[in-house]
């Protein structure tokens, strides 16, 4: 049987994580937060004394190959350590963006991501879900929003988690991250050929979820 999968890809802070999680909940599907996997990889590398530099690619890939990451509800575990908070800092985000540009690291994490595809279905959130990991997906959404809107959203998110940040710094940082994610040689951030590009600058999360659900229902 073909297991249904919906891919939500897009730039940082486009709302895709929130939208993907809400979709998974409403459909009763599994949820893959692939960004969290790259973040955990970056955190594990730094904790192992491996800076996210090209010279450490093979060692970080070896670590990724057997990464003891587990998702328990909304908790993310690295071994027995709850890293749900630790992986959400900007520093880890930047390091994740560095390790994710390493082809050997991406290759090492493919099987782990494929393992999330289980009945009754999956909503997968990331950068290359539709282009590389689940190219067979019947619905691929490329969710985007203006940089200013995304900086505002990331700001709110950080504040609610007790971190401090300035919107201007965040906007510059996310544009730098977009540039790195979009220009890397493997799995650059780009819409799949058959993706539906959805700009949600002027949509609420609920409106965005409703749009994606309507697309999904139209395909059943
Ligand atoms: O989505 P999130 O901000 O958690 O992702 C952190 C970083 O991991 C991204 O900036 C990107 O470099 C990388 N990533 C990726 N491929 C994915 C998901 C995330 O390269 N499928």
TrEMBL record:
It is found in: Cytoplasm. Residues 6-215 form the Cytidylate kinase domain. ATP binds at residues 10-18. It comes from the Bacteria. Catalyzes the transfer of the enolpyruvyl moiety of phosphoenolpyruvate (PEP) to the 5-hydroxyl of shikimate-3-phosphate (S3P) to produce enolpyruvyl shikimate-3-phosphate and inorganic phosphate. Monomer. Belongs to the EPSP synthase family. This is Multifunctional fusion protein. The lineage of its organism: Bacteria, Pseudomonadati, Pseudomonadota, Betaproteobacteria, Burkholderiales. The chain holds residues 452 to 671 of 679 of the full protein.
